Amino acid sequence: MEKYLSQLNEAQLAPTIQKEGPMIIIAGAGSGKTRVLTIRIAYLMSEGVDPFNILSLTFTNKAAREMKERIATIVGASEAKNLWMGTFHSVFAKILRIEADRLGYPSNFTIYDTQDSDRLISSIIKEMNLDKDIYKYKQVRSRISSYKNSLITVRAYFQNPELIEADTMARRPRLGDIYKEYVERCFKAGAMDFDDLLLKTNELLTRFPEVLMKYQNRFKYILVDEYQDTNHSQYLIVRALADKFQNICVVGDDAQSIYAFRGANISNILNFQKDYDDVKEFRLEQNYRSTKNIVNAANSIIEKNQTKLEKVVWTANDEGEKIVVNRSLTDGDEGRFVASTIWENKIQHHVPNSDFAILYRTNAQSRAIEDALRKRDIPYRIYGGLSFYQRKEIKDVLSYLRLIINPADEEALKRVINFPPRGIGGTTIDRLVVAANGYKRSIFEVMKNIDKTDVKINSGTKGKLLDFVTMIESYQVMNQTADVFELAEHVTRTTGLISEFKKDGTPEGVAKMENIEELLNGMKDFVEGQKELADTTGNLAEFLEDVALATDLDADKGDADHVALMTIHLAKGLEFPYVFVVGLEEDLFPSAMSMGTRSELEEERRLFYVALTRAEKQAYLTYALSRYRWGKLVDSEPSRFIEEIDEQYLNITTPIEERRFNPMLDADIFGDATSPELSRRLDPNKIRFKAAKQPEFKKGNTSKEEPIRNQVTTPKNLKRVVETGDNTNLFDNKLAVGNLVKHIRFGSGEVLKIEGAGADIKAEIKFQHGGVKKLLLRFAKLEVI
Ligand code: ATP
Ligand code: MG
Question: Quick one: which residues bind ATP (predicted)?
């Protein structure tokens, strides 16, 4: 333990070995908050605290897993296994399963993901004959979600005239009725949505004092990371659980509070002192993550916010490179800039793809970046898009599995009752839904007892319904002995899912088959992993629990080497050597939807602070002058956030239209910088060429006397240009047949032929690797060797 404590600075050590009492660490990005939490847990254990008595709440399950692994290296895996560690949702889902019957839920309740909630809300809107353009399901869902996170139950809603009034004013007078129906349907289906996991935990802890006491006694030590982003519901859970022993340690940074739109309440961190007696407050000031340039630039941004706690953040790290600011003409060019910069860095510094992250404000921005990365064969992975488990074919498989555990699960049933097609039509399903509501039973029960009901369904269809019931029941029997992999393998075969996708035959169908295969492989891993890390059997129920709360980030096993693409929201707590923050444009970042009030704008600024502080070595800020949004090309202006950074920390590179013919950056492999899109946007009247420095590329310079001049360079020349930035006479050489040349991508080769004139001169070159190529000298980055 001593060894690990000695790896902390003094300011970090103090909260780490402060064993008892309420405490808060408020500190800027990269100052070691998460590290302190981790080492503190190991310290508590080394001091004899039972891991069963420690509850640690993190922002993602991945963060929890990493923490656990780190702790395992300090205190040993068998001890670390017993820690209660995870996100609020995953930890309290576990507790709810144990206590479910008190709330009238089965312990095998399903967790509805957002897709399930959306589908249920949509069908309720339809059943109630409401206008779906006024009652947009996503808006309705987010309304219901915010009620739940503020602990406003259906009953509380109907007792609050102000809420009813507000929804009526928003032309949605039936919102309360939808809320009521939604809650009842979830209950009947034995399902909880994500918000329920917190709401029901609160209900459990307030309605049952003995349960509260049980968990207060269990969690003698509570630690919460990213405390600035807890919502009201989470806040109340923590407060209730910590109330008895008050050994509560929260860490956070008010400057990184970025989830207000989802109900996070920054005052939770600001008011912590008021909630407990004798709160010890700790500050960490030294940043270990980033260079001086990055730390100082980030400080200069956050200073602009009025609502903030004063903090000092400094670093002893190197000055580092200045932050590169790059302007592009279009989003396509922006993507190309990012891709080529990654490519250059990889070559120059021999770093893996995983050293790079590309962060954006909205998921829609990833497309242009992806295109550019693909062109250069740079492997990447998008996080937080449609997660693997939400893909249609995967959800189909999972729906069958969910039915095995909980046949009342309405959304799962509706999904697969007629997929693969088995002749159970829409009308039949509608009738079943109505009957189930009438009998106050699940659809599955109605199906099972179809002969005893008065549902109008012909006998042929009744037979099909009963076949379906029998099939699910046979799986339930199998589930008693088989592990999740064996079971799923059997299910995908016998339901006809596999043959359904095989029959499809299209590339999409093949991709779906592969995904199902990946799911099955994942299950195998899961079975093994559960036995090792968690001491359980790896059965279906455990698997479904894991999947329901898995985010994309969690699925990452860190085994593949790829560039990470994600929204800034998702990047919280992470760090990468090289970070690109793209799309720094007004109305995009800050978002057009968040500029109405000062507090919204300040949240956007905090988001920018989070983005920039992810970078260890080098940050790039990019923006485009025009961008495709909602299918249209719109003009854009640079984000105010760029201007807000103290200029001394910035390296504002030559805008792309000025350097597009700079062979140092754009030649050949960069030749795609002259996309048709860019050419279209290239208005010569607006573009300032640095004519004096780049005479060779001035329009009309096709002079016969110097056809080859200025097209080829030597290593010496290149070095000079790199060192001085002056590219005068860069190409003051002639190229002749027989010359040996070096190309940035194809390596060395011999010039076989030269043809054409002026800007169109081409050379035929035989490369060692890649064979004979004809290259336009204007773009080919050639060195005579
Ligand atoms: P964020 O606010 O972004 O969540 P944080 O305050 O949680 O950041 P950490 O992620 O714990 O900061 O630490 C940032 C980086 O600095 C990590 O790579 C960590 O290992 C390193 N670090 C922290 N403290 C020290 C230290 N005393 N010596 C060396 N490295 C350290
Ligand atoms: Mg952290």
Answer: 27-34
